[in-house]
Automatic annotation (TrEMBL):
Source organism per UniProt: Novosphingobium pokkalii
Creatinase N-terminal domain residues: 36-168
Protein name: M24 family metallopeptidase
Gene3D superfamilies in the record: Creatinase/methionine aminopeptidase superfamily, Creatinase/prolidase N-terminal domain
InterPro entries xrefs: Creatin/AminoP/Spt16_N, Creatinase/aminopeptidase-like, Creatinase_N, Pept_M24, Peptidase_M24B, Peptidase_M24B_aminopep-P_CS
Family to which the UniProt record says this protein belongs: Belongs to the peptidase M24B family.
Domain Peptidase M24: 176-382
Keywords assigned by UniProt, alphabetized: Hydrolase, Metal-binding, Metalloprotease, Protease
Coiled-coil zones: none
Amino acid sequence: MTTLGVGGSTAAAELAQLQPWADCAAPIAAEEYAARLAKARALMAAQGIDALLVNAGASLRYFAGVPWGASERLVAMIVLPEGRPQIVAPRFEHGSLEADLVIAADLHGWEEHEDPHALVAATLHATRAGRLAVDPAFPFQMALRLQAAAPGVTLLDGGPIIDACRSIKSEAELALMRQAKQMTLEVHRRVARILHPGITAGAVTRFIEAAHRALGAAGNSFCIVEFGRGTSFPHGLPGERRLEQDDVVLIDTGCFVQGYTSDITRTYVYGTPGAEHRRIWNLEREAQQAAFDAVKPGVPCEAIDAAARRVLERAGLGPDYRLPGLPHRTGHGIGLSIHEGPFLVRGDATPLAPGMCFSNEPMIVLPDRFGIRLEDHFHVTEAGAQWFTEPSHAIDDPFGLAA
């Protein structure tokens, strides 16, 4: 049976039908940013922390709305037990910073020839902050320079504070993530239709970028397109590939909506699936569902990984990370970062809690032959797990057209 919904159209025809997303989620409100800072301060107090350093990147966006990535120029926010946060940044960036900030904060500027770590140290000393929790994303070299500039300050891991805030998503965050994932699933449906023998992975990637933008997203957050043998490598192979008849197709992509990201994988066959394709695809879907069904508040993250692996091991795959089988964790947290904690993997005993969001992707790899990855996302509720998007239906009907 030829796979339903695959082939038969063109990139131009599919792009012409796409319109900006009609049901857009609301941006994060000012009150929510205030609540985030309040939660961080409560955690600081409980852990005996005098100040929290938040680096440029996803965490600065989370607490202050500033969508800047980290660079060699130090940009960081210091959260104190009370009062306005203090932001240290290059002086020439202050105009841009003020335009992006969604919270009230005091700015401290440094010129290009000055040491910004000394400015952070002076801010800490002025507030008598002796115990500083540092963003896990703060570069090690910068941490060393800060320690040298502030010898009386003890640097501690800020992960228990930042991760505890970011890992529990609000209803507003869930709505933004749901929009991003639904947009990417629509792109998956469209890209399947443009496939034909000879099309290159590069052409598919460019279409996905254009389709995400046509829907109103800020382009691809990332994109993996693999055909045939290339699907047996979880993150693909270098170089250009061309699609051939009856190839396995693996497409893994996502987009950003107001900083929140999607990350969805679909795997199917261009043409007619073979018996082994179908057997492994069905096993993958069973393992994905077993992981989903194991989700309950209070259950440790590692138990979800174990649930998926039991399905595969009963079928003679693995065990553990051995191939053929599942070579990586079952899932990762997701939000403002594509991969963020906690993780669905052995050794992560973090208890699941309502508001946590994860990928569910227990990929099966048959080395040098093909791989099957079905990746969807869920969030934890009081009753268990809830999908953001509907999982794939069948190897020969990935988008449920026959339903």
